[in-house]
Predict the structure.
Amino acid sequence: MMRLDLSRIRVALENQGQSAVDLSDLHVTYLRPGQDGPVLAQLTSTQRDGGVATFTLRSASEVKGRRWAAEINTRHVANLNVVTATPAVYDEGLEALITSFPVDRRLSTLSDVLDEGVMRRKLADHFATRGHGDPLEACRASVIRYKSESKCVVRYELNWRSRSENRPDVLYGKLSKPSIFARSRAVADHVAEIGCATDFATPRWFGAIDSLSLELWGELTGVPLADAELGEAVPVAASVGRALRSLHSMKANLADARPDDCIELSLTEATHHLSKHVPELASELTAMREQTAPFLEWSRSHPPSPTHHDFHGFNLLIDGATVGLLDFEDLALGDRFHDVGALLAHFVELESRSSGPTVQFEQQRAGFLAGYGELDSAESDRLAAYAAAHCVLRGFQALRKPGSTNHEVVATLIRVARQFLRGENP
């Protein structure tokens, strides 16, 4: 089992050659739990030049970990990437593979995607094949979001010799592991359809560079709903509700949701891990899972709708009266209350982090649901079950991001889940 011993990790990084990093500032930013403990951890620290260094620990046996390290190091030497420290090492004391960003075990092209010289050539060639060739004189890359062994979103600022709407000045590249990349590629053509048929604004799709597993999207302006001030979030909630209802009313030739995206499976996993971390809530979590199960299973008998499946405040961009929608990798036919319940639960989490354990989100909830439209009693029961389930899932997500307030957030989310199931207005 992987050990999260910061002292030992600092020693391992020193031995790896991380002399440019202030390891005294090293801290865990993300955990992926397994049955017996964490299987992946993402850590960051401050570089001596003021930048941020990111590291990943991946649980592995000695045989597998040393093999992975050798493969990664060989790959980077072959690609002639210049590194100041060994890209990957296995530490037997930690029982973990250690990699240093931009090295990633599963995102093998990450270094290329961040190399401005490489991407200047790749992007120029990509647009030339689309009939929009023109010299690309400069390409500046900055990381927007990185999730170890899963995905990385990069913002590219481009300087073309001549301007054209078919050659954007700003592009967002999404590099992802093969399973995510395949799903995203499959639904990309539906994104423009969503922008035309719903009240959501959507980013423009500029194709993909398959050799890099990199999707290319245009820019959407706005502030994430999760970052909006309360005074801004309340008025826009009704607009979000109306836009979501228009998405759910679309006729789209989408695939059914993946079996592993079933909320019942996710809820079972979340209940298991939360019960281990917060044992005083174990019996209540189990009871809630059993109470919600019939509603979640029953909902399968309803006609499926186009469902975003990752509908939360960071994927919604607010720009005046315009609501933009991002991140379509899980777009599929499913139960529409998956989306409605997800945003309600995220409202709870956002306000619990900003206001402490007392949640006051009635105005956002009321505006969002009013915009979404009236529900009959059976639909209200389904929504309550999904909202409660998503509160538990948000609590599990909170534990993945270590912080002193997360146990309070979890307790608040479980309390509100209980209220949802009692038919109350939290």
Q: What stands out?
A: The longest strand covers residues 21-33.
